[in-house]
Amino acid sequence: MNRKLWIGIGTIILLFGGWFGYRQFFPSNRTVWSLMPSGSLLVLASDRLQDTVSAQALRTTIALQQLPIFHEARQRLDRFIYAAMDSATAIQFVKGKNIRYSLHTISKTTLDFIFYIPRAEVDQPFIDRLTNPDPRQHRILRHTFSGEKILDLVNRSNESVGSFILTDNFLVGSASGILIENVAKRMHQTFQLPRSEPNFRVDSDHWAGISIRPEVLQSLFGNATSLVRLFLPEELNLQFRPSASRSHLIGYAADAIGERQDVASLFTGQTPRRIQNSDLIPQTTASLFHIGISDANRFGKSLSRLLSSASSDFLRERFEQIEPATEAIYQSLGTEILLCRMESPSGARQHVLVLNAKNIKELSNAYQQAAYLAGAKAPATLKTFLGHKTLRLDVPELPASLFSSLFTGFQRSWITQHGSSLIVANAEEAMQEYLQQIQRKAVWSTDERQADLLKNTLRPANFTAFVRLTRINADQSQTMLTSTWPLAWQNLLNGSEEGSALSNLENIAYQASYGNEKILSTLVLGRTTRRASQAVLNRLLLQKKVEFNVSLIAAPVVTGSLSDGTAQFYAQNSAGQFVLVTPEGDKIVQDTTDGPIRSNALAVDFLDNSNLQYLFMTDRTLYIADPKKKSVHLNTIRLPAGIDPTFLTRPRGSLQRNWVALVAHQDGHVYALDRQRKAFVRIISSTNKKPLILPFQVIASPTGMEIMATQSDGTLNRWNENGTQLPHYPVKIERTKEEEVEVRFSGPALLPPGQQQIQTITEEGQLLTLNQNGLIASRTQLYRPVRRGVFRLFPDQAMTNWLLLRATDTEVAILDQKGQQRFDVRALQSGSNNVRYHRLGAGVELISVKSGGFTTLYDLSGRIIGSRPIPSDFPVSLQFDERTNELYILSGSKQAVQLFSIRLR
């Protein structure tokens, strides 16, 4: 027995030895997969990635070269092949070749590509020139690693351009010498474990293939969208083709379900569907999640099983609480569940859940019953906005408790009904913004390109995740998924550089349909925004000019959208006339006013008639402008004596349904406008009879509305809406031992959304950070130049973010939140300056500086926006249309109202 065993072992050793010797002298034909080092993060294959595309074509179509990962692979190869020879020879060498590119980790912060170019006998002249470059420009260094000759191409400064290995069938190169040494090591591994190579088709219909490892997918779905990875297959092997619209490229894959069986069972028996309710998707949607179902009862049972065994203790325990109401909810569902995460100029979280219903009344009642089972208190007072009755349900994460953790982000729910759908918002402002967009039809169904994306580009699917890049997301950073990506990926893609490949990509959509054994995946990449030629980019263009016989006395008020031509303008002239300017340019005198408009204009449903009215103040009167198609009716309310007419704001989070606006009194009081009584009522009485520094901040809290305001003597107030101060308030900031003068505030206080510390600043330029109870956490003395400047906390128009402002009579400097100067503007006209900070959504943040009769726009880096200053006797109104990347500016100058536009990148 032992003898037979030893004979068997000897035979095996002999066979392996013979095979080893054979491979040493007669190596097998090399494939790309046998050359590729293990651990590749992804592999690309394409025969057209190095092709050139005209600038004109790139404005109307999406090219493979514009997609971020493909772009970087192309750039790496271009730098190598163009370094040693002329472009014509280089292009001829790569033309029509199916080139592979593999991406590998070099360090924690660095990734790089290896490219594998097939070579034939006809390519020998190119190889000869590459290995014998012009010595006046480049030279070749040679060294051996793991028995393989490696060639290094260096320039005259002895800087490496790239390293490469020549095999019989391939030129293998990389900018990284380490990766090429890994290739050499791989080539001489005696025992290579078999690896399955994706069978990519590369032809006229299939432009490229990409294979991605599962852990890479998970790392690229960052904090905000990490839950989406549960719906992804464990590996994606995508074949890319152009879409019918040519504005997107589509990757198709069919991958094994693997460990995704739990999610797949959720869609058993559910027919994949297209997104139907495009009229309920607001234009400002930054990310969208869609679940399409055909059998609600079956889906509900599967979802119940999934939630009952959820890994989250909170969701599992919550589901046990609300389970008696869930059956009615799931049975009342229609064909789709939509989650819209809207961009917000203010940076606030704006999430809206749309539940299509078979029976909207049953679904609404069942949803409320689930809230009460989860611990919601008695129903709050119903509020009406634009004809919709809204109800607040004060229970956290109810959508996630009913539909999985994908639907987190609802600290409480505001619900209403719209047609056959139940609408659930995570904040009152989110609900109001959503209903405004629905009312004015600023939705995807009215946008030709978004409608085409839904009807033709996106496919029927069980699950769809859609993200628009460069949008403001829930945590106030620019969505850029890149901000949550590992640092190595951010460095590879150069996402922070203007003009990088990420600026060419606007839309990312992942769709999945689940079968018994396979997940059918679709990855859609492209853009819907139209591109501008360099001749139009950043130019100030006059769109409309309406002239008057006499001069204007106040900035024109705009209602509606400047981009779609539906906006009305209200102008006041020196004759005291209130003039309506229609979208067609007609000038219709409507009424007279008792003076120039002093305040901002506030859009509210004052008349409770499902339409928006516009409030603004003169020195003595509040006017309510009720717009019609060809007219506007003015209602008036007399201002109480002592009211400051320069500032109107909304009562965010108020429990009082009839309060629609807040104003300040010169004695430090706060008044609310009651739409039922049609009068101002004092809601806060200040014991410190000093004016509030405007603007004051309104904060929505779980217990109602809070108002935070500073007074110049160093007092910080924080009131509840019932008029009482919060505990520890008011706070009187005392001077330190080193300070010689009393502390005086020179700006408002601000508690940015989602943050826990209050920011304010003193006249002496001391930046104060305070805890929620008003105690000072830190003091920072800002740099004071030789010429005395006035410091001010500089919030944006919506009071959601802040910078710092240092101003003199003829200069302004914009500082970041640490007091470091971003840029300054000098030589301003003394006594006629106005500086404002605008957050317009879609990642657009601007500073407007009005001086004399002109306004100049700057980005936050100090670059001027527009080719010339904007004529303006008053501060301008700005709107940004993210569909066209167009910035619209409404300006009043001398005897005219002018509408300008600037096409941004």
Protein described:
This protein starts with a helix and ends with a strand. It contains 16 helices and 50 strands. α11 packs antiparallel against α12 (360-373). The chain is an alpha+beta fold. Among the domains are: 1-30; 31-198, no CATH class; 214-526, no CATH class. The protein has a 20-stranded antiparallel sheet, sandwiched between helices. A four-stranded antiparallel sheet has the order 21-50-49-48, with no helix packed on it. Strands 22-23-24-25 form a four-stranded antiparallel sheet, with no helix packed on it.
Rg: 32 Å
The fraction of residues in strands falls at 25-35%
* Main sheet specs: 20 strands, antiparallel
- Gap between N and C termini, in Å? 80 Å
Low-confidence stretches: 472-480, 495-499
The tally of beta strands, per DSSP, is 50
Kindly report the average pLDDT value. 85
Shape: globular
Structural class: alpha+beta
State the helicity in percent bands. 10-25%
Count every helix, treating DSSP H or I runs of 4 or more residues as helices: 16
Protein name: DUF3352 domain-containing protein
Organism: Spirosoma terrae
Keywords: Membrane, Transmembrane, Transmembrane helix
List keywords for this structure.
50 strands; alpha+beta; 905 residues; globular
Write the layout of secondary structure elements.
Layout: H1 2-25, H2 32-35, E1 42-46, H3 55-60, H4 68-81, H5 87-94, E2 99-107, E3 110-118, H6 124-131, E4 138-145, E5 148-155, E6 160-166, E7 170-174, H7 177-187, E8 208-212, H8 214-220, E9 236-242, E10 248-256, H9 261-266, E11 285-292, H10 296-308, H11 313-332, E12 333-342, E13 351-357, H12 360-373, E14 383-385, E15 388-393, H13 398-403, E16 413-418, E17 421-425, H14 428-439, H15 448-457, E18 463-468, H16 487-493, E19 507-514, E20 518-526, E21 540-547, E22 557-559, E23 568-572, E24 577-581, E25 587-592, E26 602-604, E27 613-617, E28 621-627, E29 632-638, E30 659-664, E31 670-674, E32 679-684, E33 697-701, E34 704-711, E35 715-720, E36 731-732, E37 758-761, E38 766-770, E39 776-781, E40 790-795, E41 802-807, E42 812-815, E43 821-825, E44 833-839, E45 845-851, E46 854-859, E47 864-871, E48 877-881, E49 886-893, E50 896-903
Antiparallel strand pairs: 1-2, 1-8, 2-3, 3-7, 4-5, 5-6, 6-7, 8-9, 9-10, 10-20, 11-12, 11-18, 12-13, 13-17, 14-15, 15-16, 16-17, 18-19, 19-20, 21-50, 22-23, 23-24, 24-25, 26-27, 27-28, 28-29, 30-31, 31-32, 33-34, 34-35, 35-36, 37-38, 38-39, 40-41, 41-42, 42-43, 44-45, 45-46, 46-47, 48-49, ...
Helix pairs in contact: 10-11, 11-12
Keywords: Membrane, Transmembrane, Transmembrane helix
Organism: Spirosoma terrae
Protein name: DUF3352 domain-containing protein
